[in-house]
Amino acid sequence: MDLGRIHNIRVVPQKRISVEGGDVLHVINSTEPEFKEFNEAYFSIVKANFIKAWKRHRKMTMNLIVPIGRVQFIFYNGSGELILNTTIGEDNYCRITVPPKIWFGFKGLAKRDSYILNVADIPHDPLEVDRKPLIDFNFLPEER
């Protein structure tokens, strides 16, 4: 059973178009089913072997892309049940669409800083974010 699909988390491979002088990396198009609305885009940086966890957005739908580096993402439901453990980045170029109310954390797996782009349907609002300490959920080994 695909728990990510049950919780409406979608992992969608993205196009990487080889172009002389540097590749073009697709992110999202307004015609795709994962696109709700655009209100803000921002990058989060995670250092090598650093874990940033745990938080959830009460209203925001996230569209996460890792164009530089490699990042492990872990998602839990409100009951603490694992939904998805996946890794994306330069070698597995995908977009993860995450609906509101999903707990998540991530870990930088590259030897350098990794960059996470979030294309969000609402502007970032620190008052709509819940946080828990790292010890509240297990940060699992990377699934291969």
Total domains: 1
**Structural class determined from secondary elements:** mainly beta
Q: What is the CATH class name?
A: Mainly Beta
Q: SSE string, helix = H, strand = E?
A: HEEEEEEEEEEEE
The portion of residues forming beta strands comes to over 45%
Strand order of the largest sheet: 1-9-6-11-4
Can you give keywords for this protein?
single chain, 144 residues, Jelly Rolls, five-stranded antiparallel sheet, 1 helix, 3% helix
Q: What do you see in this structure?
A:
There is one protein chain. The protein is mostly beta strands and 144 residues long. The protein has a single domain (3-136), classed as Jelly Rolls (Sandwich). It contains one helix and twelve strands. The strands form three sheets. It has a five-stranded antiparallel sheet, with no helix packed on it. The protein has a five-stranded antiparallel sheet with strand order 8-7-10-5-12, with no helix packed on it. It has a two-stranded antiparallel sheet with strand order 2-3. The protein is globular. The chain starts with a helix and ends in a 13-residue tail after the last strand.
Topology (SSEs and partners):
Layout: H1 3-6, E1 10-13, E2 16-17, E3 24-25, E4 40-46, E5 51-57, E6 62-68, E7 70-76, E8 82-89, E9 94-98, E10 103-108, E11 114-120, E12 129-131
Short description:
With 144 residues, the protein is an all-beta fold.
